[in-house]
Amino acid sequence: MSLPDWAPAGVDTTVPNAARVYDYALGGYHNFAVDREFAERAMQAWPGIGRVAYANRAYLGRAVEWLVDAGVRQFLDIGSGIPTLGNVHEVAQALAPDARVMYVDIDEVAVMHSEAILAGNPRAAAVQGDLRKPQEILANPRVQELLDLGQPVAVLLVAVLHFIADEDDPAGIVRELGDALVGGSYVAVSHFTRTTGLDSEQDRVTKLYDQTPTSVRARTPEQVAEILGGLELIGPGVVPATAWHPDPEVDEPEQPAVLAAVGRKSVAN
Ligand SMILES: C[S@@+](CC[C@H](N)C(=O)[O-])C[C@H]1O[C@@H](n2cnc3c(N)ncnc32)[C@H](O)[C@@H]1O
């Protein structure tokens, strides 16, 4: 099969991939037949899952706006995905042109496409990295070149922690990232959670993801709060993503299946 020009040589087009499935769910076109088939099966199993993806993406945009408003000018977006509607650098730089954004993703298609759309933007870049190895991300020369870790940074972990198994210690990962940041830095997260009345739909989707290299797990609001343990939770705490600083001008139905929260490293730490 010949690859489209946006696909890196050697990419595995036989296995569904979380970045490309999400891209398809959001109406993007950087995906292969295997990703589209998987996404269609997931949408059949849980017809509301597409709306959950949109609600998650909308939260990402609001969180970035809120963080810029709070004075943050540097973003480390890990598990950033394939560029699509409302990219972090677009949202942040529209409000603060001096904002710098480092995208990190484990998926080479996401990184390659991010690099292509960021060409010519001196304040945004993309590198491949694995959230399970936070020290490698922080030590990456391109991360160090773009971001000044001596100044506050917002780490964005949006819809990625649910791909991290308990054995890989998500709380430890967030702690390591937090330890590397100065006081006044933030960590913004969103995370899949179980919702009453959707048990069988969510079971079916979880089982589908179990057949891919990136299984997905739900966590409770308490578990998400624990993951952000060392940070002070910004109001309203851990809530459905649609309830995290909602835009009063947008009438968005609640999506309880995705939780959101932002933690801040206290200046005294
Ligand atoms: C559902 S997408 C979320 C994209 C974007 N953050 C958003 O919320 O719109 C999840 C992304 O996490 C990436 N990912 C999964 N496991 C990862 C890991 N261990 N390290 C870095 N990225 C990872 C996937 O490749 C995918 O692009």
Automatic annotation (TrEMBL):
Protein name: S-adenosyl methyltransferase
InterPro entries noted in UniProt: SAM-dependent_MTases_sf, SAM_dep_MeTrfase_SAV2177_type
Any Pfam family the entry gives: Methyltransf_19
SUPFAM superfamilies according to UniProt: S-adenosyl-L-methionine-dependent methyltransferases
